[in-house]
Every structure is written in structure tokens, then in C-alpha cells.
Amino acid sequence: MELDDIDRVTVLGAGSMGHGITEVVALAGYQVTMRDIEQEYVDDGYDSIKWSLEKLAEKGIVDQTPEEVLNRIETAVDLGEAVSDADLVIEAAPEQMSLKKDIFGELDDLAPEGAILATNTSSLSITEIASATDRPESVVGTHFFNPPVKMDLVEVIYGAETADETAETAYAFVEAIGKTPIYVRKDVNGFVVNSVLGPFGDEAAWMVSGEEASVRQADATMVHERGYPMGPFELSDLTGIDIGYSVRKEAGKPIPPVVQEKVDAEELGQKTGKGYYDYESGDGADYQPEDADGEFDWLRIEARMINEAAKLIGDDVATAEAIDIGMRLGAGFPEGPCRRADKLGLDTVLEKLRERHEATGEDRYDPAAYLEDLVEAGKTGEDASEGFYNYGGEGGERHYTTINADLNEDGLLEVELDRPERLNALNGDLMDEVVHLLETTPTEDVRCVTFEGTGDRAFSAGADITGFSGMEPHEAGVTEFFEVVAEYPRPTLAKIQGFCLGGGHELALACDLRIATEDSEFGFPEINLGLIPGGGGTQRAMRMLTDARAKELVFRGNRIDAETAEEWGLINRAVPESEFDDTVEEFLDDLVHGAPIALGKAKQVMNAGRDQDLSAGLELESQAFGLLLTTEDMKEGTSAFMEKRDAEFEGR
Ligand code: COA
To answer: Can you spell out the DSSP letters for 64-121?
Structure first.
């Protein structure tokens, strides 16, 4: 069975995963049948899909009407009827092995020969589920994350007998429905994301159990110093402390005493009103940025996660890249653990594990052979030009983790900002990788550069806010990135579809030309964070727009639509989605095929003329940006953003 052979999909289960998967599959244009064991469950699931589709349409996230999508969904209670002509079945029943085996046993009798039988289990063995059938080669894991409509990641998991063809078609199908698949090549407990995530909560719990840290200190440090979307205890309260407890029990792992105490007291997290935080009489996860006091040994947590990643790579379960994508998309990590390890230095990571192992004798610090081998071979990370990834050491090409780049024969260099999970927000890595790309690609091979965002929502929603809090003013050296783009000796064009905000907007302004779809939005929201544009935006906006319009954008932090942006002279064209590619093509035709030396000179002299006093302006802007990074207002603004509440500024 290949992707083209898949026409009809059946989802078994109409609960939160089942109806979510059904919705995603139908949105992608497939005919799908959603089946549950009672009409009542099916109806509830159907209503939830309808509600969700209405929300998506209201917010303008999809341009199909709810009716169009619902027309592709059929419902069923009878299993035979639901799967009789299915090419792909995705089972999303409750997480009980006996139940799943019953279902797969029945599927074996009822589903057409050759159909792919996928299970959405998040924790059970694919091999064991497949053993209930006489066709284990057709059984594969497709682990969607909750909620499927929002979460981009799907783990595609091999059972012991899964055929390559089955896994490859499942992988292609996941791509076809607009999600990002990663291969999990062996049926390991927890697959990739939950395996690597395990130590995040576990190590923190051991540290609190050993009275080496407090709950608030751990959470505040991981969020405000290390950029994770949630603290380990906050996360545990959200998912349920009993869940982590039973996962450890089943895996035969020791239980940290704080976890045992909470389970004994039946304080299991948000669902019981109390866990590590009090959600009934207290304010919930109320740790503050100042609880991150610089004393918490976060490396213990990160070293263990990196160690898990190294085990998976060494055991051929997943590649470093798959793991990093998995953790970014599936767990909201600011960057993947392998990439982060390469920055920390693998020797530093290994040393931490060995030190803990020696001090405690506990298995959980046992270093992975793969990690030891890398360190022994001198591949200690970015500084050594090689670690989990290659950074251009010994004939290797640098591997980019936040951008995709392609240079075609005509000399068109296409750069995609590839952090869709953060609306392509610019972080240090991304800026670094773009600079590296532009500086190392031979200029004579390039005639024009385009920038665009991946995903369908944003060009870029700005600098990555989650990285701001721990930043020192001298680290705010973002200007280089924008300057390298602005001064690139070939014409540059920004292809804008969706949000073009803050640093993303500044990147677009650093390009020579800008074409946007009509539904794009432009703005400088920095003021709402207690900041100002820090990538040349204040200066470039003043030069491109009237004084009044530039100040309106920067002072008010509001967004303008593409039509207004065109009228104001901020962009070259605002066009309907359907005309976007053609318009871009027309421009590129001139840029790629125009006289390169003349184009280069034209750019150089036009910019120089415009920018006579730019350096002074940029210097001032950079000083002000650095100063603002130290203010309480900026900390308040960034915390408020992450907590999804309104900021209260005090002018401090
Ligand atoms: N930095 C880091 N993460 C960002 C981000 C940024 N600049 N902009 C968006 N994201 C993340 C969100 O936190 C969210 O992550 P989550 O799913 O883990 O919660 C994800 O991208 C999707 O964004 P979301 O806010 O859920 O989408 P939305 O449609 O509700 O709103 C925006 C879209 C662009 C209006 C909103 O994300 C926003 O205001 N972003 C910040 C823009 C900004 O201030 N940029 C200037 C920075 S200097």
C-alpha cells in the first residue's frame, strides 16, 4: 500500500484523540469514518469536531467552511461497516492492552487485505498489539499528540515485524495531512518523546526529594533560565502525578519520595485541586522569575535527557534530528536536546553524569555508550566542529536545525525559517545558521535570496520571546544577523504569508523586496513586552515610511494588514493567496536573470545613499535595546506573555 492508494481512512474512537485525528484527516481532504462503540460517544465526538472547525474558521486559520469538512466525515458504531473498505485504520481506543488486542484481532478479520492498521497508543507495545493479528507487517504506531489539531508531531513507530513499506506509507500519510512525522525505528517503551522527557520530571523530583532544591526553584529555573514552556512540577500537576507514578512502576524504576508522598496523599495535580501546587485555595503554579536564583543545578536534568537521547541514537531507535524535532514539536522544547548538548559540550554533559553516578551509584546516571564514544572520539560538540551534529568539521557540511536551505542551478538561494511550532520565531541558532549559510555559500553561485516561513501561519512572529529572560545585554548581538542580510551583495526578497512581526518584520525590512499574501499582518509588538525593535526596525521603518506611520507602528505595537502595508510603502505587493506564487515568480525572474553585477551595484549604492546616518542610529538602538533587557518591565512583559495574561508595567 502506497500513499496514492489511500483514499478511505477509518478512525476507531471518538474521544479526544479519536475525534481530533478524524478532524485533522478530514481537513486534509480525506474521506474518513469515525467509529465508537456507542452512538452517544460518536455524537459527542462529532459535535466536538464541529465546534473546533467553527473556531478554526472564525479565527481564519482554515479557509474551508465547517460544512465542507464535515461532509467528508461519516460516523459508525458497527466495526465491520466502519472498516470494510478502509485503506488505513487508525485506532484511538483507551490505553488498555487487552482492549487494543481485541480490536486488532477483529480488524484482522474485518479490514481489507493490505490495509494499514495503525495504533495511536502513546505507551503500549506496538509489537504486542500487532501479535493479535496474522498480519503484523501491516501494523504500525502513529502516535499523535494532544490536541491533534494543534500539535504538529506524529511519531511513526515500528513494531518488531512492521514492514518498511507500511511505516513509509504511514510516514508519507502523516506528511500528507500536514503534520510532521519522525521515525521511531524500534518499539521502545515511551517511544522517543516520552523517553527523553522522562528525566525532566524525574530528576527534578529526586532533587526535591533530596532537599537539594525547592519545587518553585526548579520550575522557575527551567522556565526562566532554560526556556522550557513549563516547569517539571507544573507539568506533572497538569498531566497527573499518578501518571508518572505508574509509568515508573511499570518500568520497574524507583519512585522519588516526593512523588510517593503526593500519591499517598491523593494529591495528584490539577485534577484533584492539589499537587505540587494548590489549585483550590492557592494560585496554582505561582513560581516567580526571582525563584530562579542561579543555584539550581539544571545540568543534572538536561544531562539525563541528553543521555536518554544518546541511548536512542546508539540503539538505532532514532536519529539526533528526529529526536530534536520530536522534543521541539511534541514537548515544546525551545531547542532539541542534541542541539543543546552540542552547545553545552558533550564532555561537560558526560562529566556531570559520571560525577552523579560516582556519588550515588544510581543506574539513572549510567552514561550511554554512544555518548562516551563521541567524547572519546573528540566529538564534543559545536566547539569541536562535531558532536551529535556536524558543524563543518572534517569535510562534513554543517547541519542546520532551524532553517532549510536550497540553492538551485539558476542561483536562487531559498531559505525557509523552520520553527513552525513557534511561528518561526527567531532564536540564536536560527540567526546563526542564516549568517553561516550566507557567509559560506559562494556568492558567485548565488543570484538572489528568498526568505520564507514554514507552516501556513507565519513568515515569522518575531524574536523568540522565551529566550529573553535569561539574556544579558551584551548577548543581545542580534544586529549582526540583520546586517548580514541587509548587506548581502545580491538582491533579497521576503515571501510573506501570515504573521510578520517584530524581528520577523525586521528581517523582511532588511530584505530588498517584500511580497505578501493579503491575509498577512505586519507589526512591531515589542512595545507590549517593554522593549523596542532591536534588529534595525526603528531605523528602517523611519527610512521607509513617513515619520508618523513608523512611530504609529512602533509606539502602538498594533498590527496592520497587508493592504495597508502596501499602501504605506512597506511592502511591494499584497496579493490574494492564489496569485502569490505567480507574483513571486515574476519578481524572481527579473532578479535571478537580471545582470548580477549591475544588480549588486544598484543595491549597494541605493543602500549607501539611504543609510548615511544609519550606523549612528543602529548604535543608539542597540544600546537602548541592551538597557531595556535589564528592566523589570521587560521581565514582566515576557513572563506575562508566557503565562498568557496581560502585562502590568510599572516603568521600572
Ligand atoms: N517567541 C516565542 N514563541 C512564540 C512567539 C515568539 N515571538 N510567537 C509565537 N510563539 C509561540 C506561542 O507561544 C505559541 O506556542 P504554544 O503553542 O507553545 O503556546 C505558538 O507560537 C503559536 O502562537 P499562538 O500565540 O498560540 O498563536 P495565536 O494565533 O494565538 O497568536 C500571535 C499569534 C503572533 C499574535 C502571537 O503568537 C504573538 O503575539 N506572538 C508574539 C509576537 C511578538 O511579540 N513578537 C515580538 C517579539 S520581539
So the answer is: S-HHHHHTTEEEES-HHHHHTT-SEEEE---S-HHHHHHHHHHHHHHSPTT-EEEE--
Q: How far is the CA of 424 from the centre of ligand 1 (A)?
A: 9
> Does the model's pTM come out above 0.85?
no
Q: Out of 220-224, 405-409, 495-499, 606-610, which region has the weakest mean confidence (pLDDT)?
A: 606-610
Helix (H) or strand (E) holding 449: strand 448-453
Give the separation between CA 188 and CA 171, rounded to whole angstroms: 18
Quick: pLDDT tens for 452-473.
999 889 999 999 988 766 566 5
Query: Could you tell me the distance, in angstroms and rounded to a whole number, from the CA of residue 520 to the centre of ligand 1?
Result: 15
Averaged over 388-411, what is the pLDDT? 87
Ligand 1 lined by 533 (C-beta under 6 Å): no
Q: Which grid coordinates belong to 212?
A: 537539594
Q: Which of 207, 243, 178, 240 is nearest to 364 (CA)?
A: 207
**What local confidence, expressed as pLDDT, does residue 477 receive?**
61
- DSSP H/E element including 304: helix 298-314
Report the C-alpha gap between 474 and 492 in whole angstroms: 29
Residue 526 bears catalytic tag: yes
Nearest Cα neighbor of 525 from 504, 495, 509 is 504
Distance 322 CA to ligand 1 centre (A): 24
Q: What is the pLDDT of residues 503-537, one digit of tens each?
A: 999 999 999 999 999 999 999 999 999 999 988 89
The CB-side HSE value for 527 (13 A sphere, CA atoms) comes to 13
Decide if pLDDT at 310 tops 90: yes
Ligand 1 pocket, mutate which of 61, 422, 520 (most atoms under 8 A from CB)? 422
The three-state DSSP-derived secondary structure of 112-177 is: CCCCEEEECCCCCCHHHHHCCCCCHHHEEEEEECCCCCCCCEEEEEECCCCCHHHHHHHHHHHHHC
What is the rounded CA–CA span in Å between residue 229 and residue 262?
23
Backbone Cα Rg of the chain: 26
For the beta carbon of residue 485, count every other beta carbon within 10 angstroms.
26
473, amino acid identity = P
**149 pocket-lining for ligand 1 (C-beta < 6 Å):** no
Q: Please give the domain boundaries of the chain with CATH numbers for all domains.
A: 3-184 (3.40.50.720), 213-296 (1.10.1040.50), 300-395 (1.10.1040.10), 403-584 (3.90.226.10), 596-642 (1.10.12.10)
Angle at which helices 346-360 and 369-376 pack, to 10 degrees?
Answer: 130
% the chain with pLDDT above 70: 97
- For the CA of 464, the nearest atom of ligand 1: 1
Separation between Cα atoms, residue 588 and residue 585, nearest integer Å: 5
What is the rounded distance in angstroms from the CA atom of residue 244 to the CA atom of residue 212? Answer: 21
Average pLDDT estimate for 174-203: 96
> Under DSSP, is residue 367 helix (H, G, I), strand (E, B) or coil?
coil
Count Cα atoms within 13 angstroms, Cβ side, for 134: 7
Using CA of residue 414, residue 415, residue 416, residue 418, what is the dihedral sign? Answer: positive
Assess whether 506 carries a catalytic annotation: yes
**107: β partners:** none
Q: Find the largest Cα–Cα distance for the chain.
A: 77
* DSSP bridge pairs for 9: 32, 88
Residues belonging to the chain: 652
